[in-house]
Amino acid sequence: MTTSTPKRPPARPWRLSLSDPRVAGLFWQVLVVGIAVAIVVWLWSNAVHNLSVRRISTGFAFLGREAGMPIADSWIDYTPKNTYLRAFIVGIVNTLRVAVIGIVLATVIGTLVGIARLSSNWLLARLAAVYVEVLRDLPLLLQLLFWYVLMQGLPAARQAFKPIEGVFLSNRGLILPSVPLQEANWWTILALVAGLIVLHLVRRRLIAQQMLDGRARPAWPYALGLVVVLPALVSLLMGASWSITLPELRGFNFVGGLTLAPEYFALLIALVTYTSAFIAEIVRSGIQAVPRGQSEAAKALGLKRGFVLQHIVLPQALRVIIPPMTSQYLNLTKNSSLAVAVGYQDIVSIANTTLNQTGQAIESIALIMMVFLTISLGISLFMNWYNARIALVER
Amino acid sequence: MSSVAHLPQDPLPISPRPAPRALGGHFTAWLRANLFASIPSGIMTLLLLFVLGKACIGLWQWGIANAVWVVSGNDTSACRALRGVGACWAVVPEKYRFILFGTYPFDEQWRPALAVAIFIALFAVSSRRSFWRKELFLLWAAALAMIGCLMWGGFLGLSFVTQDRWGGLPVTLILATFGLAFGFPLGILVALGRRSKLPAIRSLCVLYVELIRGVPLISLLFMASVMFPLFMPDGVNIDKLLRAQIAFILYAGAYLAEVVRGGLQAVPRGQYEAADALGLSYWEKHALIVLPQAIRHVIPPLVNTFIAFFKDTSLVLIIGIFDLLTTAKTAIVDPAWQSFSVEVYVFVGVIYFVFCFAMSRYSRSLEAQRGTN
Questions:
Q1: Distance CA A224, CA A199 (A)
Q2: Which of B206, B299, B317, B333 has the fewest Cβ atoms within 10 angstroms?
Q3: How many CB atoms lie within 10 A of CB A126?
Q4: What residues are paired with A169 via a beta bridge?
Q5: Domain ranges (residues) in chain A
Q6: CATH second-level architecture of A84-160+263-390?
Q7: What is the ipTM for the molecules in this complex?
Q8: More confident residue, B26 or B195
Q9: Which residues 194-233 on chain B approach chain A with CB closer than 8 angstroms?
Q10: How many of the other CB atoms lie within 10 Å of CB of B265?
Q11: Is pLDDT of A3 > 60?
């Protein structure tokens, strides 16, 4: 007798009863989606009716109209005569400006505080713990208003604090020395970035060769050539000037230098300190998650301290750190919308003014959401890529 | 045992070395170990002590030594004279009733005070492990209903107070607690939907969670305050506080859904399979077997999420609802007290801190208990 391959059981006929899981599944999906669609249609028909009663035209045509809204702190050219579209772009740039710089500073400070919490120095560890505890347990908006009030309480420009030469802190904000960037400077910076990318590729190649024959090859000559000599040459050839302009007080205000407006500065401090407290906890738990045996084993092999940190402890800690860090970066970006409370004109503040001027509530809020969803998606994609890159590769 | 007995006696027994003698007493030993273990550590300690000392002296002089504690009436000239040198704590006794209870009728303010007490009692009871039973849901329902009755009034001789006169701490607690109480069932449903095998329901839940979590809370609050009226039929006018509360519930639902989903993933597969083998229906399986385990698992992150809501309620300041932070900001609009915002913010900050710190301590103790189990 030959054994035939087992036949698949015949498909059960559909029964029109909720006890059949397939029918039940279909029923529930149709029901839930139906309810959701009905709610949306009902809300939408109400909105269309209300808008026609209030004579508000829908659509994004208003973006082409003249904004007539002054924006004090803008990195791109803008006058109130420009369109709403340009005002929105200014808002997006302002949001990104606070978010990107905030993320970098919060990461640096948070990492330092997180390491300080693990310090063997009792006083340092305690102080770091107090920093984390106090900042985490107060609402961000309260902290922001607090910093802003302190900022407004600073002396006027004439009596500004001068912690070091060329730095002024007054009720006009923080004024720093700056390097005016001409075309030649930008070319030099471009050369530096290109050099760094090439250096990265070269290092990968050197490590791949070392993997083959076990012989270490020094990377520093390449580093010297690509990161120091190349930009220096470009700078010399293009005749770039790197002179620093110090701000100085003329009349009632400062001339020259880089000005961080009080609104921007208060928002930046609040976001950075608040987020750094959370990042500190993430860094601490990440480092503690690496078993002690790992660094002890590395030391027993005779590896140097720096090497152990760079190649044994950090890669393992990063795996624990990166996912929660991503959500902190997203939080910081979303929290930057609190700018509206102190009058820093980020995207939310500009959309809010637009909404009040034109009545285009749905479009303005849709724009805010689109911008934030895009930024969130961008950060998530980047961090997921980075996370995949450093993830544990198992054989 | 016996083999040991036959071993030859050690010819030269080496007595254990004495422990190194601590230099100085117990305290000095501690100092050496924790503050001056090495030269860099010692330098760091001295540096920190210097900075800390300066900060403490400055704060002492501003906050206590030079501070003005009481003024008569609205005469703040004593405070003004010391501006920047000493704090004006007199603003706190002058304004605390407004900051805590907003524009609630002055003679009736025992009602919001009692409501706050009920909230605190509710939190205290819910934090006890022995109360984690089904009856707790009834207790929450009863307590929240009682708070509603107290705040609104309109019976038993209590005068009726409309929501637009509510303010201060009760509003903060109401927004956070009702957000949790209604957002939690919503979050459970969405979390179940996200793990469901039905593609339409799953994608609907994913869309909801990602949309809410992807945008700032402020845009949701703006939506509640300006867009919501547009979406309602004519003549339906929902109160501003209620609209903000709905926005909070939707916001809480999305975040709690993710927390609950984490708990659902932690329940072993065998539990689901065993429930299926017993012939339980989908809802029986989840209500009786899966959810009780899943939720127990995520109580510490739930508390942390609640702390975040509690802090996030302060954002209603931007749409003009009188929560604790808004009343504080409004209290210093009064010209006589205008320049003493720092003092008021410190006062409100202490209130927020006490609540959040207590909750975060509690969450940490729960985690520690779980670690030892």
A1: 10
A2: B333
A3: 15
A4: A161, A174
A5: 84-160+263-390
A6: Orthogonal Bundle (1.10)
A7: 0.85
A8: B195
A9: 197-201, 204, 211, 214-219, 222-223, 226-227, 229-233
A10: 11
A11: no
